[in-house]
Specification:
It is built from eleven helices and no strands. The chain is mainly α and 303 residues long. The chain has one domain.
């Protein structure tokens, strides 16, 4: 990334958002076939192993102090084990577009939680951003599908309110996990070492859950090599490439601009859906996604 040094970090942030948007599309098929818990377990185990190789090779695990372990474990339990599992359960019910735009609420939820528990301020501009984001999500959820659209990725399986509740739970879990980890990250811990611990805890919990004698926690189908490859790709794309690009963007870009660009995945997923399904997303989907991106911009500028 040297051809356009003034734009490198901004392009990296946009590329991170594109990775997360593509992950939503690519996750739909393997998550539906395996089930949310089995799918998420394969993702988390794969990412944990990749992060462990990096952390051991670089020695960054030495920066994990004893006082950091418990907050990161708790953050992984709530943010990744609970949050990601709810996210992919929502994805299986309401599709990647709705699940993704609901998950975007993690930023305003984190802002509110920071205000309540970390004594962070919520200036008027941040409140406006939260309002715009919530309005955009509601618009995209309830007016985001045209009559006659039949694409599988836009289908709703079961009552819509259940999928919405799962998506809100996923966003809340992600936000709470971020709030818990924030003081540790502010202390300067290596982000890859912290991520390895958080993701590893989630992988361990998912593995234990799958040992329970309940059909709902078992894989829906056998894990073939092809299915493993599809699932692992989503983890590498989202947590490997996406997070690496975001960290690079934050290393030299302006935080407000980087945060805004990286939050455009609800918008970027729409042309990907159009290409994948051959059906143009509804006007409500575009308007809602753009309103969410605008709200996130105002929120980050006001934070």
């Amino acid at each position: 990334m040297t051809a356009f040094p003034d734009l490198d970090h901004e392009l990296a942030a946009l590329a991170a958002a594109a990775c997360w948007a593509a992950t939503g599309i690519l996750s739909a098929a393997p998550s539906g076939r395996l089930g949310a818990i089995a799918f998420n377990r394969v993702r988390q185990v794969t990412v944990t192993l990749l992060l462990a190789l990096y952390v051991v090779a670089t020695g960054t695990w030495r920066g994990l102090g004893a006082d950091m372990i418990l907050p990161l474990i708790l953050s992984g339990l709530i943010g990744i084990f609970v949050g990601d599992t709810l996210l992919f359960t929502a994805l299986n019910r309401i599709g990647p577009r709705r699940a993704g735009i609901l998950f975007a609420l993690n930023a305003p939820i984190a802002a509110v939680l920071g205000f309540l528990f970390l004594d962070e301020t919520l200036p008027p501009l941040a409140l406006l951003g939260i309002g715009l984001t919530v309005a955009g999500v509601m618009l995209a959820i309830f007016f985001g599908k045209r009559p006659g659209q039949s694409a599988r990725l836009e289908a709703v399986n079961g009552p819509l309110w259940i999928g919405v509740a799962l998506g809100l739970g996923a966003a809340t879990g992600q936000a709470a996990g971020s709030i818990i980890a924030r003081p540790v990250m502010a202390a300067g811990v290596d982000p890859f070492a912290a991520s390895m611990l958080r993701v590893g805890v989630a992988a361990a919990c998912l593995s234990l859950v799958m040992l329970l004698p309940f059909g709902a926690v078992k894989p829906k189908t056998a894990l073939t090599f092809r299915l493993f490859g599809q699932t692992a790709l989503t983890g590498v794309l989202a947590m490997g490439m996406g997070m690496t690009l975001l960290l690079y963007a934050l290393s030299g870009g302006k935080v407000g601009i980087v945060s805004t660009l990286s939050a455009t995945s609800p918008v970027l997923i729409l042309p990907l859906l159009w290409i994948t399904t051959g059906e143009r997303p509804a006007h409500g989907a575009w308007a809602g996604a753009l309103l969410v991106a605008a709200g996130m911009t105002v929120l980050f500028l006001g934070a």
